[in-house]
Design goal:
By secondary structure, this protein is mainly α. It contains 4 helices and no strands.
């Protein structure tokens, strides 16, 4: 096991939750800011932020799971639309 992981696991839960909340929240806010500001990486930053938050918070893990399912459904719809256009 990595020394960093060992130290992280020994860190008290409230401290870990605070670090994860600040780091994950910052990444999510940056992703949300990029929705209105010009710049790439909006969706990857949002997903990364929720993945970070999901390590300590169940609500974030559930939200990330729902988003992934929605992305899979969207990809299926996109593939079906492309196939439909190609058949014409």
């Amino acid at each position: 096991m990595s020394p960093v992981i060992a130290v992280w696991r020994r860190t008290p839960a409230p401290v870990r939750k605070t670090i994860v909340a600040v780091l994950g929240g910052t990444v999510v806010l940056l992703g949300l800011a990029l929705v209105v500001l010009p710049g790439p990486f909006t969706l990857p930053l949002l997903l990364l932020g929720f993945a970070i938050l999901g390590t300590e918070f169940a609500w974030a893990a559930r939200t990330l799971h729902r988003v992934k399912l929605g992305m899979e459904r969207g990809a299926e719809l996109g593939r079906a639309a492309v196939a439909k256009v190609r058949r014409r």
